[in-house]
Amino acid sequence: MRPIKTIYIALGSNKGNKLEYLQSAINAIFESIGAIKKISKVYNTPAFGFEGDDFYNVCVSVETELKPKKLLKALQTIEIKLGRAQKATQQYQSREIDLDILFYEDEIIEEKNLIIPHPELQKRKFVLQPLMDIAKNVTHPVLNKTIEALLADCADNSNIEHVNIWLKKPKQSYSFGNHNYIAIEGNIGAGKTSLAKKIAQDFNAKLILERFADNAFLPKFYKEPERYAFTLEMSFLADRYQQISDDLSQLDLFKDFMVSDYDVYKSLIFSKITLPEDEFRLYRKLFHQVYKDIAKPDLYVYLYQNTERLQANIKKRGRNYEKGIKDDYLEKINAGYLEFLKGHPEMNVKIIDISDKDFVKSREDYLWLLGEVNDNNAVD
After folding, report:
1. Which residues neighbour 360 within 8 Å (Cβ) at sequence distance 6 or greater?
2. Which residue out of 98, 100, 261, 263 is catalytically annotated?
């Protein structure tokens, strides 16, 4: 995943249904830029620098993977989609929507078409007042003053009034509130860890990641599968039990639910493929003894990708010990998962084909995937 940055954006509107334009802009920011973390109160403010109707102004904090230039382009695209016409003059004028980057973390950028922090924000009470709601203690990286201090020092004496209406966070459309424990599963290279991380980041979930990278037998298994299969599966059995027991027993009062990038039953799926029949029967007995009291996920998401995409993803992440993975091994794993899921009709399962999607690079694909996960129709 690309690094996530916290940014602050100012929104303003003084034409038409101002609240509708602001809400539409917030929805569009969520869809194309990133998760909305905080939204200020809405303020009624007089037009600044020209004669016109009063504005409604608001500030939001957003977490994004976009770099500054792409962020600027995305905001300009939103403005155009919401009806803002191209400027015919450099003078201030009325507009359906106005979107300005205020801060991009603590970065300082001075380019021809992009200056961050916004060069005028310290002079504008209509920006500082809503920003005060969500970023009181944020420090301006150039002026080295907090927003609270900048507002106290601001010479702008415009009349700013709070409007008793609240804008909504768009992510409420993708609620996971009905679930306590979600497991993301899939074949090697399907993207389960990436999805678990994104959900945890965007929806305040406790993240449980499989510690496969610490398993010393994994590289050995890929070189000599027959020799190391049983040792590998037993080591995974012990490690997964220890990890899932610890993580599920430690409640986090500040998180809304738990999301993991594996389910313990993958041990049975993989061992059935890698072990001879007699060793698998022994392993299965041990598995059921170990896991009989472990909590089960109340939502099981299986990410399906075709073999060609899986191989491309495996190659892209560049783990040396995975270079020799054959197509037929991946196909056996996929068949093993599907057989397992069909044999457990009591589970709440979502099987989602993402072979033609890239939810890591495309926020549109990510939101589509969230919609599929939240679809009420589970696959039996």
Report:
1. 1, 191, 194, 366
2. 261
